[in-house]
User: What shape does this take?
Amino acid sequence: MTIDYEELLQRLAAANCPYKLYPARLRALEQATGERHLAEIQKVITMRIAVAGGDPRLKYQFQSDLETFGLFEAILYFHDYESLPAEFVEEACRLYDRLAAAYLEHHEDLETSDDPRIQTQLAYLRRLGDSREHVLPRGRRAPRSAPNGVADPERPEPVPGYERRLPPHPDLLFLGYAGSASNLAEELIEALQASFMFEGFPGLQAAFFEVADVLEEQGVDVFGSEGQYVLERMTASVNEEMFGDFERYIYCVGCAEEFKPEVSLAGVNEALLRGGWECDRCRGASSSP
Assistant: This one.
């Protein structure tokens, strides 16, 4: 059976669960429900997929995708497999529906739980850079403009007696760090880094648009020297893998093909100006006269 990507995507998206069901998140859910969700995945998918698809390597591919991307994406990637029976794919989708519904039911309780077993799993996710969004094709955003051009990044001078605009992130306070920003740019970098580390990295498709939104909310010109300094620092943080998201594959807003962009300040600016990340082919086409 050839699996239609769009149909499978819509089938999974119907569960309306924005959270990636990584094994660690499912282990936390097991503590709340008393059910063996990972064992159910083993029974329904992992132990059967090699036979269903006629290829022993599929078992290891699925296990790798589950660990790296979560259950939604691991099932969505079935469209890359040469052959899987329709009934097997549908059974896997029904399992995802059940687990997604269970997680949504318990999400708030898990986040506020003082059970150390649950918090250990959630802390592990944060250390890995728990992404808040599924890596899916997304529409183009409103392109930003730079009527005055794009300035070179420049670190602002410290402001004597600088008064913070934003409260320190609660997880930083918990760690005993109250912040040491001496100007607005440093404060915004600190806040954005903490958000991406402790609340989940939104993925490359969205991250720098979120940074640009925060800059504009605080009255900072995204393409001015101060805004460029913040973007440059955040780009460096991504490349240092501060927030996880090690694979970095995303979908082109032009052709919806998956690709791995080069994360640089120039690339970020281009994405903001175009309204999304484009692959080399679409960038070349849109740049042609």
Summary: The chain has a mean pLDDT of 86. The beta strands are 250-251, 258-259.
